Amino acid sequence: MENTVAAPNATDADSRWSPWGQPPAPMLDPRPFAEAHWQGIEAIPATASVTQVLGIPQGLRGVVIDDVSLPADLQGFQAGDLIMEVGGQSTPDLLSFVRASEAVRDQKQVDVLVYRSGQSLALTLAALFERLGTANGETPTMIPPGSRRPHRYLGPCTSCHRIGTTGSLATDPGDTASKSTVAIRYSTAAPHRDRGPCSACHQILQ
Ligand code: HEC
Ligand code: HEC
Fold first, then answer.
1. Rounded to whole angstroms, how far apart are CA atoms 54 and 107?
2. All residues at 6 or more sequence positions from 168 whose CB lies less than 8 Å from its CB, including other chains
3. For residue 6, how far is its CA from the centre of ligand 1 (angstroms)?
4. Which of 22, 41, 42, 182 is deepest in the core (most CB within 10 A)?
5. CB of 46 closer than 8 Å to CB of 19
6. pLDDT, tens digit, for every residue of 140-179?
7. Contacts of 107 (CB under 8 A, 6+ apart)
């Protein structure tokens, strides 16, 4: 099938240096990666809007950590870090980040160069189990026909999104957390973090 949809890096209005990178499989699909996951690192493209909010200087290229969890969080990685190199390979976009991880997938650990608050830091990422494995890239989510964009215009929708209803659960796991409350006694301790005065949400039994 001929690919007639422009890749977003050709049209990306958000681009200072094509932060979206090339689509991973252009002959199959025009969509670039929007997110990559690796050993507790969740990385996103360093688009102009993201780098501006984070105060990352214009000349630096990398991918931004937007979430960090086990095991990367225990090893000093932080949300907002710009990952510039993995194992000495530069990572200006998510596809090069995935490729750099691929090159070290059988190693137990690797040096990672990040930029944080005005300086470069050499961190080490060690695998949770025997080897690092390859980062997984994800394209933007599938959106139902007729969706309105919640973000500003970034180019033709199908450069980034597939259109359909089979891509995501209608209910996010977060939405299934209980929103109704039980009645509690005055002296009960809260099992959750401080959410304000108990009586705002719970009926208080005398
Ligand atoms: C350059 C890539 C790009 C283009 C082009 C683009 N989007 Fe997006 N869109 C994203 C990213 C990245 C997200 C954020 C999160 C994600 O991956 O779900 C997003 C999120 C969304 C969401 C929220 C999805 C959800 O489930 O949270 C909708 C709806 C959406 N876009 C609609 C549109 C529409 C409509 C257009 C065309 C007018 C469009 N987008 C064009 C990249 C793009
Ligand atoms: C903003 C709303 C809110 C406030 C304020 C709040 N809670 Fe809760 N509480 C909840 C919700 C919602 C749940 C259900 C579980 C969950 O989401 O954590 C819950 C669950 C509980 C439970 C577990 C009940 C059960 O048996 O399932 C207790 C006990 C409790 N809260 C006590 C307190 C106390 C004590 C305070 C005040 C110090 C308080 N809560 C303030 C919303 C609130």
1. 31
2. 141, 142
3. 16
4. 41
5. yes
6. 999 999 999 999 898 899 999 999 999 988 766 666 666 6
7. 87, 127, 131, 132
Instruction: Report the predicted TM-score, pTM, of the whole model to 2 decimal places.
Output: 0.73
Q: Give the C-alpha separation, 162 to 152, whole Å.
A: 18
The structure tokens 């949770």 sit at: 128
- Rounded to an integer, what distance in angstroms lies between the CA atom of residue 151 and that of residue 74? 33
**CA distances (Å), 136 to each of 58, 92, 172, 202, in order?**
27, 16, 21, 42
pLDDT digits (tens, 9 = 90+) for 75-134: 999 999 999 999 999 999 999 999 999 999 999 999 999 999 999 999 999 999 999 999
List ligand 2's pocket residues with C-beta within 6 A.
177-179, 181-182, 184, 188-192, 195-198, 200-202
